[in-house]
Amino acid sequence: MAGQLSQVVLDYEATMRAIVKSAVEKGAEVDWTPLEEFVAAAEFERVGTWMEVSNWAQYTAFLTQWASASGGFETVIRRVAELPGLVYLEVEERHTRPGGQLDVVNSLSVYEFTASNKIRHLDVYLQQPR
Predict the structure, then answer these.
(1) CATH number at residue 58
(2) Which end of the chain is more exposed for a tag (fewer CB within 10 A), N or C?
(3) Do the strands 86-96 and 102-113 form a parallel or antiparallel pair, or are they unpaired?
């Protein structure tokens, strides 16, 4: 059974998938407002796989570019672990390119929370084939 913070992360991840699916299927402009409900946007920081640091506005700009170029996105949740103020989420990500090529990577994301259970920091680690 998922803890309270784990459930926030699982809901965040499901919302992300739904937004990307809508963007891919409808070709519509990407609206990250539903995702922002899970984060402390004013203090949010993400450290990505290349150790790049971004705030919420920069991160959603990155997500928009990624979602707009995507042919599809699915995840398989491998493990979720919760500690006080932290959630570790390990997933298999399946990225479909517009031509149909499927790229599969493993990622581990570490979510750090505020006292009000909003995501304030996100670290992303990635395994991918050569």
Answers:
(1) 3.10.450.50
(2) C
(3) antiparallel
Single pTM value for the model: 0.91
Looking at the structure of the chain, the number of domains it has is 1
Residues 104-118 pLDDT 10s: 999 999 999 999 999
Provide the domain limits for residue 32.
4-127
Q: Tokens representing 41?
A: 């946007």
Instruction: Encode pLDDT of 74-101 as tens digits.
Output: 899 999 999 999 999 999 999 888 787 8
Look at the block and give the residue holding tokens 């402009």.
Answer: 29
Beta bridge partners of 77: 91
Residue identified by tokens 């050569």 is 130
